[in-house]
Design goal:
Length: about 500
């Protein structure tokens, strides 16, 4: 072989060797591995908006018949003995027989009493004639009616005071004894006004004003500071912080005296697993305040009840939709090992991926903002994008696998991260509706309530998962049983 040919062959051999070395040193498909560092697993505390006060309307009912029966019984005992009367030469003994009282009330709480009674007795006149004292006694009987009007007033310090006016109508009874005209009507009117009406007034006022409303309301006020367990299974607990007492003036429907007052309070509901956490008073205890009177009460509550969805729960729901082979720009991309957690104020999603066609694989991390979608009643993630460290690493291999692959992977994961909340919201409404619809608490408290609207608020992240505060609105009334005998 000539020297020239040898040089040509040597050059070709050297070129082949250099090409092989270059190909060997170039990145191979199996070497396209991405291992991005994970975003920090620390959630930023969220400043929650101030709560909206609720007003629980409480209604205390006092049956007019309670006052009537107690007054009637006491007055009959008082009148069981004859009433003695004397004025100069005239003295008398009168028996009063009380018939059934009638007691009614008007819309403004004014109580009207009509007290018919029968009377009988004797009147004696002692008269000195020519140095001798002559006595003569005459018997009499008749009918009369006493009328009273009582206006009770509830004061800011919870005392009930009352003003009363009265009148009497007596059948005309006139006698003449020893030539002296004697007006039984005048005597009886004086007796009834001095002896009977004041007693009747005192009894009615006493029975109404002795009702210790303050003690019962104070007991209710104190109980509001304690977690109120409405149901054991599943646990449903209301936590309140009472603020003030509003009240209307006393009213009536003719048979009952009503006291309507409203307790303004903050309310939070713990339902299900969250209610098992230890709870503390949301504010310092305060004594029962004085009443703030208003023209009308507006009932309405705002209860914030959280729905907690753990990251694990969302993962398990999303994995069948995310962890599989996706066709991204015609390239098979296998997604696996979905991991969700909170990072700052964002939801972090880590996924493992592999693209056999390009020999690319690794771990990617994306960050997005979780939101509640009202149209689908579900959790979703918006503004989903790769973490900064992931983006930097993607630039290094994008030229090998195509720039459109990874944006498509991000979009695919975002679309699959949906978690329905319709069942949780329905369950929340049903549970609360069930326990407040008609419920007795203790011996003299009764709750009636409705759940009218249910609105998810802005959600936020905790270390364990996503928390969706749900605002429940409706009416909640509390009936307090009272009676004139003041039984606790």
């Amino acid at each position: 072989m000539s020297k020239q040919k040898k040089l040509i062959v040597g050059a070709i051999f050297l070129g082949v060797v250099l090409i092989l070395i270059t190909l060997f040193l170039l990145p191979r498909k199996s070497d396209l591995t991405l291992e991005a560092p994970a975003p920090p697993r620390e959630v930023t505390p969220v400043l929650l908006p101030p709560p909206i006060p609720s007003t629980i309307v409480a209604k205390a009912d006092l049956p007019i018949q309670d006052v009537k029966q107690l007054t009637e019984s006491t007055l009959k005992d008082y009148l069981s003995k004859p009433i003695k009367w004397k004025d100069g030469i005239i003295d008398a003994s009168i028996n009063l027989h009380l018939d059934a009282l009638t007691m009614t009330s008007t819309a403004d709480g004014t109580v009207s009493v009509r007290s018919p009674f029968r009377f009988n007795g004797w009147i004696r006149v002692s008269k000195e004639i020519f140095g001798k004292v002559l006595e003569k006694r005459e018997n009499f009987e008749g009918k009369a009616t006493a009328s009273l009007t009582l206006t009770p007033t509830l004061n800011p310090d919870w005392r009930i005071t009352a003003k009363m006016t009265s009148d009497i109508s007596i059948q005309k009874v006139e006698l003449e004894i020893l030539g002296i005209p004697v007006s039984v009507r005048r005597i009886l009117t004086e007796l009834v006004r001095e002896k009977v009406l004041p007693k009747l007034e005192d009894l009615i006022v006493k029975h109404i004003t002795s009702i210790d409303i303050k003690t019962r309301v104070a007991g209710l006020w104190a109980k509001l500071y304690e977690p109120m367990v409405l149901k054991q299974t599943p646990p449903i607990v209301l936590i309140m912080e009472p603020l003030e007492i509003l009240a209307e003036n006393l009213s009536s429907d003719g048979e009952m005296l009503f006291l309507s007052f409203g307790i303004k309070t903050y309310i939070q509901a713990n339902i299900g697993e969250t209610s098992t956490d230890p709870v503390s008073y949301v504010g310092p205890r305060a004594d029962l305040p004085n009443i703030h009177f208003v023209d009308s009460l507006e009932s309405g509550y705002h209860i914030i009840a959280p729905i907690d969805v753990t990251y694990t729960t969302i993962e398990n729901f999303a994995k069948p939709h995310v962890e599989k082979t996706h066709k991204l720009k015609g390239v098979d991309t296998i997604v696996e090992n979905l991991t969700l957690y909170g990072s700052g104020t964002q939801l972090a999603a880590g996924v493992g991926f592999s693209m056999p066609t390009f020999g690319a694989n690794g771990q990617l991390y994306m960050l997005g903002t979780p939101v509640y979608e009202a149209t689908t009643a579900s959790l979703s993630v918006t503004e989903f994008d790769y973490s900064l460290t992931t983006q930097n690493l993607l630039l290094e291999i994008a030229e090998h696998v195509g720039e459109g692959i990874f944006p498509n992977l991000r979009t695919t994961v975002e679309e699959k991260l949906l978690f329905p909340l319709e069942t949780e919201l329905t369950t929340l409404r049903d549970k609360l509706s069930d326990v407040i619809a008609d419920r007795s608490i203790g011996t003299y408290l009764h709750l009636h309530g409705t759940v009218d609207t249910l609105t998810p608020e802005t959600l936020y992240l905790t270390q364990e998962g996503v928390r969706v505060p749900v605002r429940l609105q409706g009416n909640l009334t509390c009936e307090i049983t009272l009676n004139a005998s003041n039984v606790p």
